[in-house]
Here is the input.
Amino acid sequence: MPQTAPPLSRLPTFGEDGHVHVVVETPKGSPNKYAYSEAFGAFQFKTVLPEGTSFPYDFGMIPSTKGDDGDPLDVLLLLDAPAFPGCVLEAHLVGVIEAEQRERDGEWERNDRLIGVAVKARTHAHIHALDDLRPGMLDEVEAFFGHYNELTGREFRVLRRGDAEAANALVRQGAEAFGKEGD
Here is the structure.
Protein backbone atom coordinates (compact mmCIF):
# COMPACT_ATOMS: atom_id res chain seq x y z
CA MET A 1 0.00 0.00 0.00
CA PRO A 2 1.46 3.43 -0.95
CA GLN A 3 2.47 5.67 1.89
CA THR A 4 0.67 9.02 2.13
CA ALA A 5 2.87 12.10 2.38
CA PRO A 6 2.26 14.39 5.36
CA PRO A 7 0.58 17.76 4.79
CA LEU A 8 3.08 20.50 3.92
CA SER A 9 2.50 22.15 7.29
CA ARG A 10 3.76 18.98 9.00
CA LEU A 11 7.00 18.44 7.09
CA PRO A 12 10.17 18.36 9.23
CA THR A 13 11.16 21.78 10.55
CA PHE A 14 14.86 21.22 9.90
CA GLY A 15 16.79 19.72 7.01
CA GLU A 16 19.84 17.49 7.25
CA ASP A 17 22.31 20.36 7.63
CA GLY A 18 20.29 22.13 10.31
CA HIS A 19 18.79 24.63 7.89
CA VAL A 20 15.06 25.29 8.17
CA HIS A 21 12.58 23.99 5.64
CA VAL A 22 10.46 26.70 4.06
CA VAL A 23 7.17 26.20 2.24
CA VAL A 24 6.57 29.14 -0.08
CA GLU A 25 2.98 30.33 0.12
CA THR A 26 3.08 33.66 -1.76
CA PRO A 27 5.76 34.32 -4.39
CA LYS A 28 7.72 37.53 -4.71
CA GLY A 29 5.87 40.05 -6.87
CA SER A 30 2.43 38.55 -6.28
CA PRO A 31 -0.44 40.95 -5.64
CA ASN A 32 -2.41 37.98 -4.26
CA LYS A 33 -1.87 36.46 -0.83
CA TYR A 34 -2.07 32.69 -0.54
CA ALA A 35 -1.85 30.47 2.53
CA TYR A 36 -1.58 26.73 2.87
CA SER A 37 -4.78 25.15 4.18
CA GLU A 38 -4.20 21.84 5.91
CA ALA A 39 -7.96 21.19 5.81
CA PHE A 40 -7.96 21.38 2.00
CA GLY A 41 -4.43 20.07 1.47
CA ALA A 42 -4.01 22.96 -0.97
CA PHE A 43 -3.15 26.64 -1.17
CA GLN A 44 -6.06 28.92 -0.50
CA PHE A 45 -6.49 32.38 -1.96
CA LYS A 46 -6.69 34.82 0.96
CA THR A 47 -6.88 38.32 -0.48
CA VAL A 48 -5.77 40.75 -3.16
CA LEU A 49 -3.35 43.40 -2.00
CA PRO A 50 -4.17 47.03 -2.78
CA GLU A 51 -3.53 48.24 -6.32
CA GLY A 52 0.18 48.67 -6.99
CA THR A 53 1.21 46.55 -3.99
CA SER A 54 2.93 43.18 -4.17
CA PHE A 55 4.98 40.96 -1.92
CA PRO A 56 8.60 42.22 -1.92
CA TYR A 57 10.07 38.71 -1.45
CA ASP A 58 8.79 35.15 -1.32
CA PHE A 59 6.70 34.66 1.79
CA GLY A 60 5.96 31.37 3.47
CA MET A 61 5.98 29.23 6.55
CA ILE A 62 8.30 27.03 8.54
CA PRO A 63 6.55 23.64 8.78
CA SER A 64 5.88 21.88 12.07
CA THR A 65 6.06 25.14 14.04
CA LYS A 66 3.42 27.15 15.85
CA GLY A 67 3.64 30.86 16.59
CA ASP A 68 1.74 32.86 19.18
CA ASP A 69 -0.96 33.50 16.56
CA GLY A 70 -1.57 29.74 16.29
CA ASP A 71 -0.20 29.52 12.74
CA PRO A 72 3.14 28.18 11.50
CA LEU A 73 5.96 30.73 11.81
CA ASP A 74 6.15 33.23 8.95
CA VAL A 75 9.32 33.64 6.92
CA LEU A 76 10.35 36.17 4.29
CA LEU A 77 12.67 34.36 1.89
CA LEU A 78 15.46 35.88 -0.19
CA LEU A 79 15.88 33.92 -3.41
CA ASP A 80 17.22 34.78 -6.87
CA ALA A 81 13.85 34.58 -8.63
CA PRO A 82 10.31 34.06 -7.35
CA ALA A 83 9.39 30.50 -6.43
CA PHE A 84 5.81 29.19 -6.55
CA PRO A 85 3.21 28.27 -3.93
CA GLY A 86 4.10 24.88 -2.51
CA CYS A 87 7.80 25.00 -3.34
CA VAL A 88 9.75 23.45 -0.46
CA LEU A 89 13.35 24.47 0.06
CA GLU A 90 15.95 24.98 2.74
CA ALA A 91 17.09 28.33 4.07
CA HIS A 92 19.43 29.70 6.67
CA LEU A 93 17.95 32.32 8.94
CA VAL A 94 19.70 35.68 9.16
CA GLY A 95 17.34 37.43 11.55
CA VAL A 96 13.83 38.26 12.62
CA ILE A 97 11.49 41.21 12.79
CA GLU A 98 9.77 40.70 16.13
CA ALA A 99 6.34 42.26 15.83
CA GLU A 100 2.80 42.42 17.10
CA GLN A 101 -0.43 42.71 15.19
CA ARG A 102 -3.64 44.21 16.50
CA GLU A 103 -6.46 42.14 15.11
CA ARG A 104 -9.86 43.49 14.18
CA ASP A 105 -11.15 42.53 17.64
CA GLY A 106 -8.61 44.94 19.19
CA GLU A 107 -6.40 42.22 20.70
CA TRP A 108 -2.64 42.35 20.16
CA GLU A 109 -0.78 39.14 19.34
CA ARG A 110 2.79 38.36 18.39
CA ASN A 111 3.35 37.72 14.70
CA ASP A 112 7.07 37.72 13.99
CA ARG A 113 8.61 37.67 10.51
CA LEU A 114 11.70 35.52 10.17
CA ILE A 115 14.19 36.51 7.46
CA GLY A 116 15.86 33.67 5.58
CA VAL A 117 18.12 33.17 2.60
CA ALA A 118 17.60 30.14 0.35
CA VAL A 119 20.55 27.78 0.74
CA LYS A 120 21.02 27.54 -3.02
CA ALA A 121 20.62 31.27 -3.68
CA ARG A 122 23.41 32.96 -5.61
CA THR A 123 22.41 36.62 -5.54
CA HIS A 124 21.98 36.61 -1.77
CA ALA A 125 24.66 34.02 -0.89
CA HIS A 126 26.74 36.69 0.86
CA ILE A 127 23.96 37.43 3.37
CA HIS A 128 24.55 35.78 6.74
CA ALA A 129 23.26 38.52 9.06
CA LEU A 130 20.81 41.42 8.97
CA ASP A 131 23.78 43.80 8.67
CA ASP A 132 24.58 42.19 5.29
CA LEU A 133 21.26 43.39 3.81
CA ARG A 134 21.33 46.51 1.68
CA PRO A 135 20.72 49.74 3.61
CA GLY A 136 17.03 50.50 4.08
CA MET A 137 15.78 47.04 3.12
CA LEU A 138 14.39 46.14 6.55
CA ASP A 139 12.73 49.56 6.82
CA GLU A 140 10.99 48.86 3.50
CA VAL A 141 9.90 45.37 4.58
CA GLU A 142 8.54 46.70 7.87
CA ALA A 143 6.69 49.47 6.00
CA PHE A 144 5.20 46.87 3.63
CA PHE A 145 3.81 44.80 6.50
CA GLY A 146 2.56 47.94 8.25
CA HIS A 147 0.78 49.19 5.13
CA TYR A 148 -0.60 45.75 4.24
CA ASN A 149 -2.03 45.26 7.73
CA GLU A 150 -3.44 48.79 7.88
CA LEU A 151 -5.35 48.24 4.65
CA THR A 152 -6.82 44.99 6.00
CA GLY A 153 -8.09 46.61 9.20
CA ARG A 154 -5.22 45.57 11.45
CA GLU A 155 -2.21 47.30 12.95
CA PHE A 156 1.39 46.06 12.74
CA ARG A 157 3.94 47.20 15.31
CA VAL A 158 7.64 46.33 15.20
CA LEU A 159 9.03 45.52 18.63
CA ARG A 160 12.66 44.95 17.66
CA ARG A 161 14.95 43.26 15.19
CA GLY A 162 16.80 40.12 16.20
CA ASP A 163 19.83 38.31 14.83
CA ALA A 164 20.10 34.78 13.43
CA GLU A 165 20.44 33.35 16.92
CA ALA A 166 17.16 34.98 17.98
CA ALA A 167 15.46 33.74 14.80
CA ASN A 168 16.64 30.17 15.36
CA ALA A 169 15.53 30.32 19.01
CA LEU A 170 12.02 31.31 17.84
CA VAL A 171 11.98 28.35 15.45
CA ARG A 172 12.97 25.96 18.24
CA GLN A 173 10.22 27.44 20.46
CA GLY A 174 7.74 27.17 17.59
CA ALA A 175 8.68 23.54 16.95
CA GLU A 176 8.26 22.77 20.65
CA ALA A 177 4.84 24.50 20.72
CA PHE A 178 3.81 22.52 17.63
CA GLY A 179 4.92 19.27 19.28
CA LYS A 180 2.73 20.03 22.29
CA GLU A 181 -0.38 20.09 20.06
CA GLY A 182 -0.56 16.32 20.30
CA ASP A 183 -0.10 16.23 24.10
The mean pLDDT is 93.
